[in-house]
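B., you asked whether I could sanity-check this one before it goes into the benchmark set. Here's the sequence:
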Amino acid sequence: MTRTLSLNGRRVDTDATTLAELLAAQGYDPAGAHACAVNRQFVPRATWASRPLADGDQVDVVAPVTGG
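And here's what the prediction gave me:
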C-alpha cells in the first residue's frame, strides 16, 4: 500500500512500512549521523526498524551542523 508522507517538508509517495525502510529508500546511510522525528516526536535509532509509518505522517531527518 502506497503512503503519502511529508519528508523534510517534501511530499513523498512510498511503499515503505517502517522508518528504516523509508530512510533506505530515500538513500540515507543507516550509519550516518542524523536524527529522526515522526510527527514531531523523536524516534531513537534503535527503534527505526520497528517504527511503523502511516499515511500523512510528517517525517523529519536532521543532521548535525558543525562550524563556528
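One thing to flag: Strands lie at 3-7, 10-14, 35-38, 41-43, 58-62. Otherwise nothing jumped out at me.
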